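Notes from the 1:1 (GR / supervisor)

We went over the backlog. Supervisor wanted to see one worked example end to end before approving the batch request, so GR pasted a single chain during the call. The sequence is below; no edits were made to it. Supervisor asked that the structure be written out right there so they could see what the output format looks like.
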Amino acid sequence: MAEPAVTESGGAVQRMLSVVGVHSVVSSLWSYVDTTIKWCWIPSWLPSWCPTSQSQLQAAEDRMLRCVDSSFSKKYVPISNDNQLWTLTFSSVSVKDKTPMVLLHGFGGGVGLWAQNLDALSQCRPVFALDLMGFGQSSRPLFSSDAQAVEDQFVESIEQWRAKIGLESMILLGHNLGGYLAVSYSIKYPGRIKHIVLVEPWGFPERPDTEESDRPIPLWIKALGAMFSPFNPLAGLRLVGPLGPTLVQTLRPDFKRKFSSLFSDNTVSEYIYHLNVQTPSGETAFKNMTISFGWAKRPMLQRMDQLHPKIPINIIYGSRSSVDSNSGSTIKKMRPHSHVEIITIRGAGHYVYADQPEDFNHRVSQACEKVA
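Structure output shown during the call:
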């Protein structure tokens, strides 16, 4: 894994810190940050510092899926460059001839997070859940540093996976980053798509031009933001090493609540921890697709006119989510002659499928019931 390019940004950051009156600590602080960044990014340190391994991730996923009643298979699907995509397959005899649904998780996710949805969704049609390349148990290759190239790598990995599995067509359901990739894939391969379901999708709007003027950001925050920009989004989780599992439990107790009907222990937080302290491949790819504050470098709304008008879309939001649902309304206006339905699920946040799984499963099945 290549080290982040901290050298070029160092001088700029030091000048910014000088402006806010901390010039005397700049050299020592930057030396520490520079060393720490490099140290956190060397994968060979991970086994000894972070209490994780591939086998521990596998075991954590197995615990997540032990509550799934339906029979399913799991395997690595080989794609190009010796990469593999970890895949769960649900296909009972009664629905094997229906158009399959393919589940694409969001940033930092994995197939285990669909634990409350797999049984219900697979009653209607075959369901495939895969770990995106760079995430979960899938291969974690080196991605390009160019946003468009990264997007293309993701899309081509999905297409190679589809061809290897042998699916003629499919319904794509994507959450967060998975929603962004679902549309990107559908633009390039419209003949393979019967329906798109976007769940709290990331990366659709442009960053507002008025953001800075409406909500001015103090200079010291900008300086710290620039200083830590070489870090990957989850570098801190690896930085704290053995404290990582406790950190996840402390900062995200909501995940335990979301799955409380299935688990009373730390099964979910342990799975999330092991997902996100492996080699930061997909995490780096995502970072390369973003600009400051998590906005997409290549907003998908700018390309919605390239999506075939006959592909129907359902967009699902949680009523309590902080994600702006205006993108859904914009898509509907941009596609006046296409089927676009916006669904809001009450009592749900960003992780709609986990917050209100029964309602989510019902609404998704209902939205796709006309797809043979």
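Supervisor's comment: The radius of gyration is 21 Å.
Batch request approved.
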